[in-house]
């Protein structure tokens, strides 16, 4: 997670999204004078539910805690406690993380702070009177630092190890101790007005020293050259820490970061805590720690020196609060050790990957695909259309979102009609000047399509013609079909009226007169047995007479036939 810090804005623009962040926090309770409640309390959120411990030293050793637990350090598999009560003090070495006691030193001096050199040795600064003592963590011995020049004049609150030497801040000077000979070999004047913070960078080649308002660097590779003071633009600095080429420190309840490679002065606050407590109890002692693996940090408050103590664990990348809480039983936090765990989370995993190509000839409505998420099935959503009816190729982006994040997939949709229309064209006969009816075709997408042609669709002469019809479905599919057209231009016979006939007198003795409304009507006389008695010929002018005088009396039938019909009249001969 180590990102070079340039500005808060740059951090915001380059925020890395992590999954769940859990942590283990050791928070040191100083305890009140005369009350052996000082101890290390542990909050662990890597388990569910999260746990808060009681005083770990007390639990591990079935004893009371510390009467003013002044400082606490971890080195390798051991932890170092120093107790600074009103009377006899203690230096206690325990196993870590079990906190089982391994050795205890008692001292009439007042242990003030711890400086770790390695897994086998550390230094403790005393006050009243001031002294530096080497603590052998293997043989459990205490050896005062040899100080031929009387550099160690008081106690030190800030000690760091770099390039083979221990550097202890006393007043405005640094006392340099050769850890091989356990001897104070140099006093370095920083030029500052006291020392509120002392840190060393990763490669141990540069010390950074800070007072209330200014910051200087000491180049250990070039004879201990001290830089000119840099005024950072704040006051009352405290809890100075180094992380990833940056100097972190607090002024009041605001956090500031000085970027070594690209300082932007004056500094502006990048985070402001909302923890309770006044200016003295906020960030009390050394209660600010940065996880060197992640850059996440914790800040605590002694809460006006009453229990419980409060703390905030903060994401070092975007300065969001991971958790803000209090530690039950922890009175007056003055030190912290933080380890955070960024558990990667997996956004929803698509059920089918890649998504299949969707093809259709006319139209399609898409079904949303699915993914497997934290709580089960996650249905995809999209801002693209899910219905397509126009020919073409389209890309649809599906999104799956759950509490672990968002994943996306793309899907290709092709609408491509390759089916020709099916015409229904039949031969037809028409008269002159009659317009040929437009035939139709059935299409899979367009439905019914009317044909088009550039040929004539009406004719003035008798004959047989061919019309070529074209059917286009609008999707690139066109089919043609020929139609045979027979044209009849012959003159039609005039339509005749219905045949009308009268015959009189009826009955008759001799002559019958016949009258019709048509010409060319043939006449027959038939007896009652159906025998043709006489073919009387045609009526040309609508009138004719028949002589029945030679026939016997009886019933006869006069049959008259025109080109379109036949009519019969019953006749009686007297």
UniProtKB/TrEMBL annotation:
<dbReference type="InterPro" id="IPR015943">
    <property type="entry name" value="WD40/YVTN_repeat-like_dom_sf"/>
</dbReference>
<dbReference type="Pfam" id="PF18962">
    <property type="entry name" value="Por_Secre_tail"/>
</dbReference>
<keyword id="KW-0732">Signal</keyword>
<dbReference type="InterPro" id="IPR035986">
    <property type="entry name" value="PKD_dom_sf"/>
</dbReference>
<dbReference type="InterPro" id="IPR026444">
    <property type="entry name" value="Secre_tail"/>
</dbReference>
<dbReference type="InterPro" id="IPR013783">
    <property type="entry name" value="Ig-like_fold"/>
</dbReference>
<feature type="domain" description="Secretion system C-terminal sorting">
    <location>
        <begin position="504"/>
        <end position="566"/>
    </location>
</feature>
<protein>
    <recommendedName>
        <fullName>Secretion system C-terminal sorting domain-containing protein</fullName>
    </recommendedName>
</protein>
């Amino acid at each position: 997670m180590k990102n070079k810090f340039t500005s808060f804005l740059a951090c915001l623009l380059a925020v890395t999204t992590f999954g769940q962040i859990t942590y283990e926090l050791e928070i040191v309770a100083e305890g009140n004078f005369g009350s052996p409640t000082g101890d290390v309390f542990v909050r662990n959120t890597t388990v569910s539910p999260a746990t808060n411990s009681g005083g770990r030293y007390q639990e591990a050793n079935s004893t009371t805690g510390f009467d003013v637990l002044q400082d606490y350090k971890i080195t390798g598999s051991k932890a170092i406690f120093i107790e600074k009560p009103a009377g006899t003090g203690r230096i206690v070495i325990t196993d870590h993380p079990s906190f089982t006691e391994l050795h205890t030193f008692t001292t009439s001096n007042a242990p003030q702070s711890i400086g770790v050199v390695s897994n086998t040795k550390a230094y403790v600064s005393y006050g009243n009177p001031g002294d530096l003592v080497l603590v052998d963590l293997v043989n459990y011995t205490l050896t005062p630092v040899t100080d031929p020049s009387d550099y160690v004049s008081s106690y030190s609150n800030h000690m760091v190890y770099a390039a083979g030497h221990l550097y202890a801040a006393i007043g405005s000077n640094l006392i340099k101790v050769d850890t091989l000979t356990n001897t104070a070999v140099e006093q370095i004047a920083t030029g500052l007005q006291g020392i509120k913070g002392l840190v060393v960078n990763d490669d141990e080649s540069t010390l950074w020293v800070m007072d209330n308002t200014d910051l200087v660097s000491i180049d250990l590779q070039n004879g201990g050259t001290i830089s000119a003071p840099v005024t950072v633009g704040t006051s009352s600095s405290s809890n100075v820490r180094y992380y990833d080429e940056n100097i972190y420190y607090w002024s009041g309840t605001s956090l500031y970061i000085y970027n070594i490679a690209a300082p932007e002065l004056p500094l502006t606050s990048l985070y402001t805590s909302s923890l309770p407590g006044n200016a003295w109890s906020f960030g009390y002692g050394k209660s600010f720690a940065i996880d060197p693996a992640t850059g996440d940090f914790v800040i605590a408050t002694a809460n006006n020196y009453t229990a419980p103590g409060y703390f905030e664990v903060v994401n070092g990348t975007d300065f969001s609060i991971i958790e803000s809480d209090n530690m039950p039983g922890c009175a007056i936090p003055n030190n912290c050790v933080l380890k955070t765990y960024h558990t990667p989370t997996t956004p929803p995993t698509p059920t089918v990957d890649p998504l299949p190509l969707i093809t259709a000839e006319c139209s399609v409505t898409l079904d949303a695909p699915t993914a497997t998420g934290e709580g089960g099935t996650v249905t995809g959503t999209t801002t693209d259309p899910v219905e397509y009816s126009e020919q073409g190729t389209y890309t649809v982006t599906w999104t799956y979102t759950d509490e672990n994040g968002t994943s996306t997939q793309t899907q290709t949709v092709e609408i491509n009609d390759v089916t020709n229309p099916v015409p229904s064209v039949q031969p037809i006969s028409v008269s002159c000047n009659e317009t040929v009816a437009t035939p139709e075709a059935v299409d899979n997408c367009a439905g019914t399509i009317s044909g088009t042609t550039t040929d004539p669709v009406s004719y003035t002469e008798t004959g047989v013609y061919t019309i070529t019809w074209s059917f286009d479905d609008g999707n690139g599919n066109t089919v043609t079909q020929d139609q045979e057209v027979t044209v009849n231009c012959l003159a039609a016979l005039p339509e005749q009226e219905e045949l009308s006939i009268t015959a009189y007198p009826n009955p008759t003795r001799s002559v019958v007169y016949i009258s019709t409304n048509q010409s060319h009507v043939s006449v027959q006389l038939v007896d009652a047995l159906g025998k043709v008695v006489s073919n009387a010929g045609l009526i040309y002018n609508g009138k004719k007479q028949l002589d029945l005088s030679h026939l016997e009396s009886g019933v006869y039938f006069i049959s008259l036939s025109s080109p379109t019909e036949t009519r019969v009249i019953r006749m009686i001969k007297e």
